[in-house]
Each structure stands twice: as C-alpha cells, then as structure tokens.
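Lab meeting prep.
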Amino acid sequence: MKKAGLSAGLADKQIIVQGLGNVGFHAAKFLSEEDDARIVAVVERDGVVINAKGIDVEKCRAWMTKHGGVKGFPGGTYSSNGARALEMACDILIPSAMENQITHANAERIDARLVVEAANGPVSFEGDRILAKRGVTVLPDCYVNAGGVVVSYFEWIKNLSHIRFGRMDRRLDEMRGERIVHAIEALGGRPVPDAIRMELISRAGELALVRSGLDDTMRNAYHEIRGVLRTHKTIRDYRTAAYYVAVRKIGHSKMEMGLC
C-alpha cells in the first residue's frame, strides 16, 4: 500500500471490479464485508453500475443472475460504457474478467493507484510498461489469482491421504481450549460465559482450516516477492520479482534432482 501511495488498511478504499464471476464476486464480497472497502463500480459485459457510497455485491450478483447483466440494477447508476469505467478514479482497480483490458490504448488514462490482476493477463505488455512509467503499482496475475490452484493442491493432498482436514488434531484442539477455559476461570474466580466457552473449545471446521492454509501460503509468497524487490535493485516491479522467485525455485529443484 505504501508503494502504491495509499494509506494502510482497506477500510473505505474505493475499489472498481471488472467481472462479477467467481473470482470478481468473491473478491468484491469479502473486500466489502470483511474489510469495509467500498465497491464503487462493477463492470460487466453489458456496461457498468456505479455508486460512490458502495454497491451491495450480493444484490448486484443476484440481479445479474436474474437479468443477465447489470443494466437496471437499482443499487447504482448504469452506463453502457463499461470500458471507460476502467479509467474512473479509484484506489484499487481489480480486472477479473478477460485479458488485455489495459493496453497501450488506455493505460495512460488509468486513474488507480493499485491494479490487482485477478484475471489472466488483463494488462498487456505495453500497458504494463506505461503503468510502471506512471508509478502505478501492479500486483501480477501469476501471484494474485494463484489462490484457486493452491486450494486445489490442498484438495489433492486431502484425497491422497484419505483424511479430512482437522481429523488428526480435533481432540487436541478441544482439550487445549478446555485448559484455557479452566485457567481463565481459576484466575477470574468465576465461570466463563457459555458463548465464550464454546468459541474457545470448538475446533476449527474444514473451511476455516483451508482459508488459514491459503492465507499462510499467499502471505509467504508475497514476502518472497517483496524480499526480491528489496534486495535486487535492478528489479523494480512485482511481476518481474514474481518471475524471479519462480525461475529460481525451478532452477533449485532441477539442481537437487541432478537435472542440470
């Protein structure tokens, strides 16, 4: 956020999302519901709906499912010129629909401080060079939309082991929670309320475990990319840093296997 010239945190950040499919919908949903960001525009194939106060993503998705597009959605102002909406002023732009949405033709007019590539290749080579020259920070697709592949890997591991996540340590978590409750009660001299007790002793469900693993994986990957940016003065953007990390890992793996 500092590199992009934005204040820390996502609360009240103005975000434009292009494409309300699986990726765009869930990104917009969690950014607005869990991070208090404002989705000020949703761009779809038939145009764009705009609301500076924030769009209700769930209602917008339901409207699209019923009507086939965002036209007529009562939660904002509609325009048929969706492409021009990519050039609206915002803090974060998330193209999550198709490739080559930001090119040499419009990159000079992109008015976002941070572009997050949730689609595959939404920024062309020339568009990327123009954004970099203008000081617009771009988080590359090879990192941003890797989450689906990461969770597929978790699913593969689960299927190989034939053991659902949490099976091995469920009782351990419950016993640890009970000990914490007893310690609190001993120190406080009174029983812990039932609602707090259940929260402490309840084990994490599979969804929570998967999200935790995904969160950890993405954080570690980001820090690897950021580490390259900080230590290699000739690498100045996240895309090149991500490629550097990937190629270095492939090289190390081949060396360990004696293939080079």
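Slide two material, second protein:
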Amino acid sequence: MPHIVVDNLIDVKYPQKVNDVEFLFKADELIGVKTPNGKFLLKVLKKEDENYLVKYDKITRPIISEIKKAYEAFIKLHEANVIFENIKGIKEKLPNKNLLNIEDDLSNIDIVEVGFGSGRHLIHLAKENPNKIILGIEIHKPSIEQVLKRLEHEKITNVRVLNHDARIILSKIPSNKLSAIYVHFPVPWDKKPHRRVINKDFIKESQRTLKKEGFLHLRTDSDNYFNYSLNEFLGFDKIDLKVKKNMPYIVSSKYEDRWKKLNKDIYDIYMINHEISPELKENFDFSFEKKLENLDFTPKIYDNFVIHIEKVFKIDDTKELIRATIGNFNRPEHIYILNDEKPVYFKKPAPIKENYLAHLELKRLFNGVS
C-alpha cells in the first residue's frame, strides 16, 4: 500500500486547506480529505519509534494522483520531514473506458452476459452485434483484466465490463431494455445454494429488464443446477421455456471443451419473455433527518440486506464518524457516516435497492425518521 512515514505532527484545528487539498476533519486516527478529483480518508498511526505512519483508508479507494497530492499537503501542513515513502515511483493507471463501476449509467445496455470467464462468448456477442452495447459482469478480477486487454488488442468498442454481483446489477437496468441475458456455466454451488446466480429474484429482474420476446439463456453441465433452475423458471408466468440437451453451440467455452472430453451432458434452458413490465421508477434518497443514536454493534441480517455498525471515531463532543457495512448480503458495501444533527454519508452508497433498504432500516433502528 502506498504510504509515508513522517517524523513530526503539530496540533492542527480542522478544517484546513493546503493549495487545492482540503483537510475536512479529524476523527481519532482518521482525517477526511477532499481534493479536486477525490474524497477519501487518511489514517495516521503512531509507530513504536515515535514516527508516524500515514496511509489511505482502503474503503474510500482514492486514485494514486490524489493520494500523492494529499500526502504532499499533509507534510506541508505539519511541517514534517519524510522518513520513508513508497509512492513517488508509482505510475497512475489510466482508467479503462470499458470498465464501469456500479454508479455508472446502464441505460444504454442491450445485452448482458453474466460470468464471462475467458471472454470467448462475450467477444463473439460483440462481433455479432456491432451496433449494440454488451455488458459483461464478472467477479473474477484476472478474467476481467484478460478480457479488457483483448478488447483493446482487437479494437472492440461495444463491450462494457463490471466487477460486481449480477443479481445486484440487473436492478439498475431499465425495464424492457435487454434483448438477451446469457448465463453460461455458472458455479453450481451445490453446498451453498443461496449463492446461485439463478434464483427467483434474478429471474424476476431478468423478466423485468428483458424486452418482449427477449430471452434468458442458461447453459450448464450440472444435472442438479439444471433441475433446480428449471423448477425456478416454472414458477413464473408469461414466459416460454425451451430445453435442449447436448446440442452444439456456436461458441464453446474452455469449460465446455473440458466437459465434452469427459462426456458430460450439457443442458440449455431458454426463458423467453412475453411480458411488458412497468418502467423502473426508483429515486433513492440517501438523506438523514436526525442524528443516529443508541448505536448497536450487533450485525443485523435481513432477507435482502445486512446492517453492521463496526466502529465509531470521535470528531468532537457533538460529532462522530461511523464506519458500517450495509447492503446486499452477498456483496455488502463499506461506508462512513458523518454523524451530527443531520448526518450525511462521507461518500454516498451505490444507488441500488438493497443499499436503500438498508439505509431506511438504519434510520429506523437508530432513532431516525423512516
């Protein structure tokens, strides 16, 4: 982790500003920082040798250029000498225009592939549909890096990639928008079925986001996953189901190549949508009306989300910084809340349903207004 070690700290009253870097507050060992292109936290820890370690807080994820600015301003603010640093030689990694984050607009997406792995099928979709925007969703970062490099090498411009849980991402896509959703060879999770991509919520969101006559295509080598998924699909109305077994497909993934050598059965389920869904009208208001009080550090687990108040950092007699985990059980978000008469998130949570439900419950639990 890029960090510095300095020999001295002077007493500072916050807020302070050094050039274009604002030091907003100090909450125990944490310092709120705002730069022209970032808002994040620094952590200052006293070492055994009486020097001070200064590093960024990973939850707030600043970019390298802004960390450098903050460290330089911090040194100047405290009139400190640098004992050690490992940041000057780090080059800024330019953001990849094909790599999205969960806050980005997904209203222009036409086709989605969930768990694209090596990217063979994703690249095929892009080439077969040059006028459509294809979104690939994947949680395995090495696969993402590999596909991003291939997109650049082959000059493919109509693919976007997201590193997140697909079950959450679909909830951000407008209704009646997608022509197809592909889920090829998902992990069966026989021992942890709650982690399966295909479930009632995922199918419901798929049906909502699909156009009329759009389809969801599941391809799997698992007998258990096939039987489980078919039963889940049968719980929905206004759909056609087409089932195939051991039929060749236009693109063979590396997993399929492996299963064929083992003579395993391969199943296809096509869920064709015949419903026009209501438009998605979700305006998530992440505001607070009242100070959060009587904080409880016990994790709260609900059907669709979790809430866990982890730690409280004191700013002064009336203000504090709360670190918490909220949102979807399988992909929660780590957040900070500046808690005073009218609390605010240090950085707002991603605008997804599970985060918003957790926000409402957070206010209800700790004396806010629901």
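Talking points for slide two:
The chain has three domains: 3-85, 99-273, 300-365.
The chain has eight helices and 20 strands.
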